[in-house]
Amino acid sequence: MSLCDRADHAALPIVIFMETLRLHYAPDNASLVVRLALEELQFRYETILVDRSRNAQKSAAYRSINPAGKIPVLETSTGPIFETAAILLYLADQSSRLAPQADSHDRGAFLSWLFYLSNTLHTNLRLTFHPQSYVGSDKTLVEPLRDGARRALIESLHLLDDLAGASYPWLNEPQPSVLDFYLAAMLRWMALYPVDDTDWFSLSDWSNLDEMAGRLEDRNSVAALIKAEGMDPHPFTRPTFPNPTEGVAL
Prior knowledge:
By secondary structure, the chain is α+β, with helices and mostly antiparallel strands.
């Protein structure tokens, strides 16, 4: 965690958030999106590694804070929050930053796309990463499921590339929103996973998304992510597999 002064925030008010949050994370998992938001906001937080190599996310202790047994969880003074989009929305609302606020005319569109990322894009990514979890090991079922999910991802990328080029204040602007962070992470995963099966995707095919991802890589919050999770200097535009200081990326 880094709480140093940052040029990224020079023109923005800093919200003092007194409680120390606890992020349950694993390297290169959805928790990285929450880490980016926490770093961007300069909120105090601690990290607790969830050892996926031992299926710690399925343990009784972990399920006591996230019954779904998935990563991440953010512990707050009012209780644990799980689901990436829910955590991001909580942080944005607590800080009055990284998202249009409740009384903004931009709020409805922002919420629509946040849940589109969570419910559609992220879901289709999971189908390409772990199709066996949905249909078992039968290749006659696995391959059609993965192919269908990839066609849906390409359709989504067309929509999102147009969105990123439309000059909305909550995407691909100099000051990022949680949408930028969430989408950049998923662009990273499309380029890396499943291992040796990513030929369908090239970020250069989506010029506005490429611009957005490159813009983020100049931010101190991304530098903090790179250091914490063992990533190379261009984690979104030229991603490589991480070498984390603790845990494994699975």
